[in-house]
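If you are new to this repository, start here. Below is one unmodified record pulled from the training split, so you can see the exact layout before writing a loader.
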Amino acid sequence: QVQLLESGGGLVQPGGSLRLSCAASGSFLGINAMGWYRQAPGKQRELVARLINGGSANYADSGKGRFTISRDNAKNTVSLEMNSLKPEDTAVYYCNAAVLYHSGSVLRTNDYWGQGTQVTVSS
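And here is the target side for that same chain:
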């Protein structure tokens, strides 16, 4: 089983910064991708940023130029640095990991989610 433990989040004023961190633990073959999603009240969960092994970062348009995602593959952690925060960034932020497993001779992934951390941007 895989557990994702998130930290960071909280209340910040518009224009402020926050850093979210997530650590994966448990027994698993490896992690193909890690990222962050968010869900605001009354809205669907949406991608914020994601990093795939050997690939570049993928950002939602809303966070480009303001958010930076980073991974430490050795420690199975992912972080999200958020700057110039806006009230519309208010949401519950979820860490996601695409964890590798063998299905016969094929490598597949299962998605795991953290419990979510609240980010509120308000004056």
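Two things worth knowing about this chain: The first strand starts at residue 2 and ends at 7. The mean pLDDT is 96.
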